[in-house]
Amino acid sequence: MVVEAARQFRSPKRSLGELDAEATATLVAAATDVALVIDAGGVIRDIAVGSDELAQEGYDDWIGRHWVETVTVESRRKVEEMLRDAGAGGPSRWRQVNHPSSRGDDMPMLYSTVPVGSKGRVVAIGRNLRSIATLQQKLLDVQQSMERDYLRLRHAETRYRLLFQMAAEAVLIVDAGTQRVVEANPAAAQLLEETARRLVGRPFPEGFDAPSTQALQSLLAAVRAAGSADEVRVRLLEGRREFMVSTSMFRQDNASLFLVRLSPINTDSGAGPMPRAQTRLSDIVESLPDGFVVTDVDGQIITANRAFLDVVQLATEEQARGESIERWLGRPGVDLNVLLANLKQHGSVRMFATTLRGEYGANTEIEISAVSAPNTEPPCLGFTVRNIMRRPVAENRSSHALPRSVEQLTELVGRVSLKELVRETTDVIERLCIEAALELTGDNRASAAEMLGLSRQSLYVKLRRYGMGDLAPEA
Question: Superfamily for 276-387?
Fold first, then answer.
């Protein structure tokens, strides 16, 4: 009884008894989005629309049609059940019904039916659910977007794990706060003569001789203070092995971590010590700001300096050794063949323009100079790789700057594709013709446009494109 009293007026005859049909219709139309008056046969006899959005759907043609004919196929059973419940003498429960819409998407409505009068008539009260459906769709889109982001993160973590495990370089991840090893890849475990499982959780540095331990502590302190430091040479206990250690610092999940890289030192002295002059030359080549690569006659890398490794985004020389230099050149199957052919014919190549692709997708504009050394044993080739992306604009004629002569166009050969070169050639010819027409007409743009067969507006567009002269319209 308490629930029933809460759902209905306590004394409707006394409070609403003076309402006539017009007032009741106004009240129903104002309280609902759609109100349908349906006879005992299920035919719509009258309709009231209380929403401007629904009024645009053209509901007037519903009058005289069966209610089930105005809904979609899957909603007809719901309409029949609501009419049956109303015929039993009570209001039906709220049911969602979809109407075909002129906009393409179905119109979702929430209906309840109430019997009125003694002739079997029913009033169907409807509420528009399109705004709720729109919000639900937005929520679904957001959820799907989050799922895609989570999936990308999981894939990125999987790739990181795979690369970390398969990397030839020994790497340790060390917690900067506790200085304990968080992760160690198989290469590090092999280098330190331990298993990766036993390395995790171990203090770092541990297992090194006293001078090496002190050097590593100083290295970590310098990286913690300045963010970077020079690599140090260390030795394991009992002099088992020597290697170089470099460290960088990064943050993850509000924690600071050290990325420790260990590179073994080849202590094989069977070849004898290098002369001092050759040692100095080797050190200078290794420290060059330009990349330097030595390959065999087929382009297989024998050695490479640090600058080249940085450009191609490799960590150690071992990752590059034995690979073809063509792996990183911008035009596979073209650049290396051109270089090798010129080296075979002329013995050297100067300022060959191309691009270099890094392991992680970075593209760098470069110039290659190369020389052949046929008298060495075995014969080899030397390549210098110079990054030209940092050159001043006047020195580095990018393909995006419009050439002004045939000589400049020929300089683009090898730097851009033939399609782009043809487009640049067309632009040069077009600009030269406009300059000639303006000169012949004394800078009279109307006459120049007529001479070129262009409208004045088209000529202004081209002048703006090429940055030619004062662009203010003529009087």
Answer: PAS domain (3.30.450.20)
Helices (H) and strands (E) in the chain, counts: 17, 15
Domain residue extents for the chain: 16-128, 167-264, 276-387, 406-466
- Domain 406-466 in CATH 3.30.420? The answer is no
- As given in the structure block, the two tokens for residue 432 are 């030269």
Q: Which amino acid is it at 67?
A: W
Report field, pTM of the whole predicted structure over 0.85: no
* Residue 244, H or E segment: strand 242-252
Record: fold of 16-128: Beta-Lactamase (3.30.450)
Q: Is 245 exposed, middle or buried (0-12, 13-18, 19+ CB in 10 A)?
A: buried
- Report the topology of domain 167-264: Beta-Lactamase (3.30.450)
Query: Which of 94, 99, 87 is closest to 111 using CA atoms?
Result: 94
- Local confidence pLDDT in tens for the 475 residues of the chain: 333 434 566 666 666 666 666 666 777 766 778 888 888 888 888 888 876 666 666 677 788 888 888 888 888 888 888 888 887 777 778 888 888 877 767 888 888 888 887 777 888 888 888 778 778 888 888 888 888 888 888 888 787 777 777 777 788 888 888 888 888 888 888 777 777 778 888 888 888 888 888 888 888 888 888 777 777 888 887 766 778 888 888 887 778 888 888 887 764 444 444 455 556 777 788 878 888 999 998 889 988 988 888 888 888 888 888 888 888 887 777 788 888 888 888 888 888 888 888 888 888 888 889 998 888 778 899 999 988 876 554 444 444 445 555 665 666 665 566 776 777 778 778 888 888 888 877 788 887 888 788 888 888 888 888 777 665 554 4
